[in-house]
C-alpha cells in the first residue's frame, strides 16, 4: 500500500497547471450579434449535464463573440464556479465559456487531467460548503485555490485515471446507444403523428381542428379528459436527511427514470408524515418535470414500483385513462409542438413552473387507439433497451463513485488495483 506521507503530497491546483476564468466581457451579454457563429460557447448548464466529456453546447459565438471572449483548447477541464458549484467536464472541442466557468490546463509533467477531475469531483461537497454566500453561491478563483489536492506521482495518477475513465467510457458508449434508439423512436413518432404518414394514411382525408389539420377520425382533447389523475408530489420537504427513505426532485430525473443515487434521504418518520401522491407503474403513471430550469425537460413513464420513494411537488404525476396508450402519451408530451404549448401553462419569472390548472387544459391530438397500439408495439422494444442501458449507467456510476474515494485518497494499493483491473479487461 502507498504511504501517503511519502508519495502523496498536498498541492494547490494552480501549481499543477494553468487555471483561469472564462471571458464574456461584452454588455449586454444577450446581444444577438455575439451569437450564432461557428465557435462553441459552453455555459454552466452544459458542464452540469455532461458526464466526463463535454460533448454538447447550447450556444455558439460569432466572430464578434469570440473577440470579447477566449477560445480554450480541447482537453481543458471546465469547472463551474457559479449557479451549479464545482461541476466538472472536459472539452472535446475548442470552445469559449463565460467567467462563471474556470478552465484548467494541466502541466503534463505534473498532472493528469482525469485524475484532477476526479479529485475535484470527490471534493465537490467541500467546495460547495466554502462557496455558500448570503445571496448566491459563488466559488471564486481564490476559494478554488484554497483547497489543496492530494497528488501522487504522475505514473500513479495515470493508473487511477485509466481505472476510473473506463467506467465513464462505458457510460459514454451507453449514452450514445440510448441517443440512437431515441432518434429511431422519435423519427417514427414524427412520421406517424406529426407528418401523418402512418400506415394507410393515403386513404384518409385531413380535417380542420383547433390544432390545425389532422386525419379524419382523429380528435383533439384536453389532457384532463385523457387522464384519471393530474396532480403533483409532496409540498413538504423535510430538512433532516438521515438514511431511510428517498425523496426525488426534478434534479434526480432523467429521460428514462430517476437516478436514485442522487436522491435525498429522509427518515422513516418524516416519510410517514408526507402527504404523498404515489407513482404506480401498473396504472401507467407518467412523471413530468414542472419546475425551474428542468421544466418539461424530463418526462418518463414509471416502470418500477418503489415503496420507499416519494416525489416532490416539482414533479407532476399524470395517470392516463383508457382513451390513450401511456407510451403514446409520454412521447406526445415530449414532442416539440406539445412542449411549446406546455410553455403557455408556465408562470413565474424567477422560478418558472407549470400551473396544473392550466396544464390540465392542454390540448392533445388523439389518434385512434388501434393506431396508437400499433406504434407502441414498434416503440416498446426500443424503450426497453433504453431503460436497460440507463439502469446499467446507474450501476456504473455507483461502482465508479464507490471506488473513486479509495483510489484518489490512496486508501488502496493503486498498482495492485490497476493490475487486477487490467486482467479483468483482457
UniProtKB/TrEMBL annotation:
GO biological process, one term: DNA restriction-modification system
Residue intervals passing through the bilayer: none
GO molecular function: DNA binding; endonuclease activity
Gene3D superfamilies: DNA methylase specificity domains
CDD domains to which the protein is assigned, alphabetical: RMtype1_S_Eco16444ORF1681_TRD1-CR1_like
InterPro entries: Restrct_endonuc_typeI_TRD, Restrct_endonuc_typeI_TRD_sf, Type-I_RS_S_subunit
One Pfam family cited in the UniProt record for this chain: Methylase_S
Boundaries of every Type I restriction modification DNA specificity domain copy: 6-182
Keyword presence, Cell membrane: no
Keywords annotated in UniProt: DNA-binding, Endonuclease, Hydrolase, Nuclease, Restriction system
Assigned protein family: Belongs to the type-I restriction system S methylase family.
Protein name: Restriction endonuclease subunit S
Source organism of this protein record: Rhizobium tubonense
Source organism phylogeny: Bacteria, Pseudomonadati, Pseudomonadota, Alphaproteobacteria, Hyphomicrobiales
Amino acid at each position: 500500500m502507498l504511504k501517503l506521507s511519502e508519495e502523496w503530497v498536498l498541492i494547490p491546483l494552480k501549481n499543477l497547471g494553468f487555471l483561469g476564468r472564462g471571458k464574456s466581457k461584452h454588455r449586454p451579454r444577450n446581444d444577438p450579434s455575439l451569437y450564432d457563429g461557428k465557435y462553441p460557447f459552453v455555459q454552466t448548464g452544459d458542464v452540469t449535464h455532461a458526464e466526463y466529456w463535454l460533448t454538447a453546447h447550447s450556444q455558439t459565438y460569432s466572430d464578434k463573440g469570440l473577440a470579447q471572449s477566449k477560445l480554450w483548447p480541447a482537453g481543458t477541464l471546465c469547472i463551474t464556479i457559479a449557479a451549479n458549484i464545482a461541476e466538472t467536464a472536459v472539452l472535446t472541442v475548442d470552445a469559449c465559456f463565460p467567467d462563471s466557468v474556470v478552465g484548467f490546463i494541466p502541466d503534463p509533467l505534473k498532472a493528469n487531467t482525469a485524475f484532477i477531475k476526479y479529485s475535484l469531483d470527490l471534493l465537490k461537497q467541500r467546495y460547495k460548503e466554502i462557496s455558500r454566500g448570503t445571496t448566491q453561491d459563488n466559488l471564486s478563483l481564490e476559494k478554488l485555490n484554497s483547497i489543496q489536492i492530494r497528488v501522487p506521482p504522475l505514473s500513479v495518477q495515470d493508473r487511477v485515471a485509466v481505472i476510473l475513465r473506463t467506467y465513464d467510457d462505458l457510460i459514454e458508449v451507453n449514452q450514445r446507444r440510448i441517443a440512437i434508439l431515441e432518434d429511431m423512436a422519435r423519427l417514427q413518432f414524427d412520421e406517424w403523428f406529426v407528418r401523418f404518414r402512418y400506415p394507410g394514411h393515403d386513404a384518409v382525408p385531413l380535417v380542420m381542428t383547433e390544432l390545425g389539420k389532422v386525419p379524419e377520425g382523429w380528435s383533439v382533447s384536453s389532457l384532463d379528459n385523457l387522464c384519471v389523475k393530474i396532480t403533483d408530489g409532496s409540498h413538504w420537504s423535510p430538512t433532516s436527511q438521515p438514511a431511510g427513505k428517498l425523496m426525488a426532485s426534478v434534479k434526480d430525473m432523467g429521460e428514462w427514470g430517476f437516478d436514485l443515487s442522487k436522491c435525498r434521504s429522509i427518515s422513516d418518520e418524516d416519510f410517514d408524515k408526507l402527504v404523498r401522491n404515489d407513482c404506480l407503474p401498473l396504472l401507467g403513471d407518467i412523471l413530468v418535470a414542472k419546475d425551474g430550469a428542468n421544466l418539461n425537460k424530463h418526462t418518463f413513464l414509471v416502470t418500477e414500483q418503489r415503496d420507499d420513494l416519494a416525489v416532490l411537488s416539482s414533479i407532476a404525476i399524470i395517470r392516463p385513462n383508457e382513451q390513450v396508450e401511456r407510451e403514446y402519451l409520454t412521447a406526445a408530451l415530449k414532442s416539440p409542438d406539445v412542449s411549446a404549448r406546455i410553455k403557455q401553462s408556465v408562470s413565474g419569472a424567477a422560478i418558472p413552473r407549470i400551473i396544473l390548472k392550466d396544464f390540465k387544459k392542454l390540448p392533445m391530438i388523439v389518434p385512434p387507439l388501434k393506431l396508437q397500439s400499433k406504434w407502441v408495439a414498434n416503440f416498446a422494444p426500443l424503450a426497453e433497451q433504453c431503460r436497460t442501458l440507463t439502469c446499467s449507467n446507474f450501476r456504473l456510476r455507483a461502482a465508479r463513485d464507490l471506488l473513486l474515494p479509495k483510489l484518489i485518497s490512496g486508501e488502496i494499493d493503486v498498482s495492485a488495483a490497476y493490475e487486477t483491473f487490467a486482467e479483468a479487461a483482457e
